[in-house]
Every structure is written in C-alpha cells, then in structure tokens.
C-alpha cells in the first residue's frame, strides 16, 4: 500500500456508481480517506490527490438517480398472521366465517386489497395441506399471487434497465484513476518499471469496467427471464411461497 490509499480503494472508486446515493456516500468516504481526514492526520500524497480528483469529477458528472424501492409483496407478513390464526394448533380448518369472507372477495386479482391478500396467504399456511380448505384458499390465492409476482418482476426489470448503461466516464476522468493506481502499484513494487505499472493499472481498471458492464447486462437478462417465466407459467406460483 502506498500511503493513504490502496489499489483496492482505486478499483472500488471505479466500480461505484455515482447515480446511487449509497455509492455516492462511499465515494465521499474514499475522498476523505485520500486526504487523511479519517486517520486524524491530514496529509497529501500524489496517488491520493489523483484519486480525489477522479472522485470529484465522477460525482460532478452525474446526479443521483436512486432506483425506487422494490415492489412489496403483500404477503410478506403472512407467516406471522398464520401463527395467530392457528394459535397453539399445527394447522386449523377454515371457520364458516372464513369461507364466507373468501366467497365475497373480488374475482379480479388486481382488485383484491393487500390486507386481504395477506390474510389469504396466511390461511393457506394455516390450513392442512391437501385438504379441501387448502384447495379453496389456493384456488383464490394463486391468480392473485401470480398478479403480484408479475408486478414485482416488472418493477425489478424497470430498475435493472434504469442502470443498464454503465457510468460513461471520459478518458480524462479515468486517467486520474489510472495515474493513482499506477503510482500505488509502483510504490508497492519498487522494482517495477513505471511503464509496466501504468499498463497494469489500465488493465485492472478495464477489467473492473468490463465486469461491471457484464453484471448490468446480466441483471437485465435475469429480470427479463423471470418476467417471461411468470407470464408463460403462472400456475407454478401456486406451489411457491
């Protein structure tokens, strides 16, 4: 390690996305580390200066574009509700009032209120497996679950596409990171020629950029596949969760 910052610090700065508030915070943390503020001994060295310049340019180039919170599946607390329904019993048959309540639910999946979805999911967990009661609950719950799973998959795909494009740092900005990394590599390996350190620094930075781009593409592809699977096989959701 050369002074205040390490090779890992530089590569982490390259990897972080300034459009995400959590990543911006990490970049600001690294910038503070570059100046020695975190150690209580403010000092400056050349790699730290270059990395700080890189971080400043990266933060200035992009505004925060945080992705929305993930879609909340309405049965997230159904296990807790099921425990209340069962009481001390392992499973419990539906009460007449439960059957009447189920019969009055909307037939359109998107019209069923979240609180009712949670109770339906809880009843499915509370009733005996392969019983007529479970069959009744599942017959109503399955299309509702499929509807919400598709909405969650659509939200995941939208979020994945939002960040599908990697951060497009210009060469002049990236050169600051490459310079910092090259100097740290040279300090860590004094017998290495400066040109060799520079070539290694660029190779490592390019590898990080390529890995990041591949991960973004993979996230979109996985989200697309998930949505396609749900659209073509919604019946599989009856056995899920």
How would you portray this structure in words?
This protein has 241 residues and is mainly alpha-helical. 65% of the residues lie in helices and 0% in strands. The protein contains nine helices and no strands. The protein has helices spanning 7-15, 21-34, 46-61, 78-86, 96-103, 114-126, 132-162, 171-188, 194-232. The longest helix has 39 residues, at 194-232. Residues 237-241 have low confidence and may be disordered.
How many domains comprise the coordinates? 2
Binned strand content: under 5%
Instruction: Tell me the radius of gyration.
Output: 27 Å
Number of strands: 0
H-E order: HHHHHHHHH
- Regarding quaternary structure, how should these chains be classified? single chain
Average residue-wise pLDDT: 86
- Range of helix content: 55-70%
The largest sheet is: none
The low-confidence parts are: 237-241
Tell me, briefly, the overall form: elongated
SS summary, helix count: 9
N-C termini distance: 48 Å
Topology of this protein?
Elements lengths: L6 H9 L5 H14 L11 H16 L16 H9 L9 H8 L10 H13 L5 H31 L8 H18 L5 H39 L9
């Amino acid at each position: 390690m050369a002074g205040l910052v390490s090779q890992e610090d530089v590569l982490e700065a390259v990897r972080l996305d300034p459009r995400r508030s959590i990543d911006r915070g990490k970049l600001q943390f690294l910038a503070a580390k570059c100046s020695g503020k975190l150690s209580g001994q403010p000092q400056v060295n050349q790699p730290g200066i270059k990395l700080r310049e890189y971080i400043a340019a990266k933060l200035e180039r992009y505004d925060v574009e945080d992705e929305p919170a993930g879609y909340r599946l309405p049965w997230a607390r159904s296990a807790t509700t099921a425990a209340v329904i069962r009481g001390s019993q392992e499973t419990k048959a539906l009460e007449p009032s439960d059957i009447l309540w189920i019969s009055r639910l909307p037939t359109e999946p998107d019209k069923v209120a979240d609180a009712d979805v949670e109770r339906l999911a809880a009843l499915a967990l509370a009733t005996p497996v392969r019983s007529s009661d479970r069959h009744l609950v599942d017959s109503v719950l399955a299309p509702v679950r499929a509807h919400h799973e598709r909405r969650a998959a659509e939200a995941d795909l939208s979020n994945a596409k939002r960040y599908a494009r990697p951060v497009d740092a210009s060469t002049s900005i990236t050169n600051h990171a490459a310079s910092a990394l090259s100097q740290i590599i040279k300090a860590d390996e004094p017998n290495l020629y400066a040109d060799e350190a520079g070539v290694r620094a660029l190779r490592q930075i390019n590898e990080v950029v390529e890995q990041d781009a591949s991960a973004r593409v993979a996230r979109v592809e996985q989200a697309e596949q998930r949505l396609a699977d749900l659209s073509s096989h919604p019946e599989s959701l009856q056995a899920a969760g």
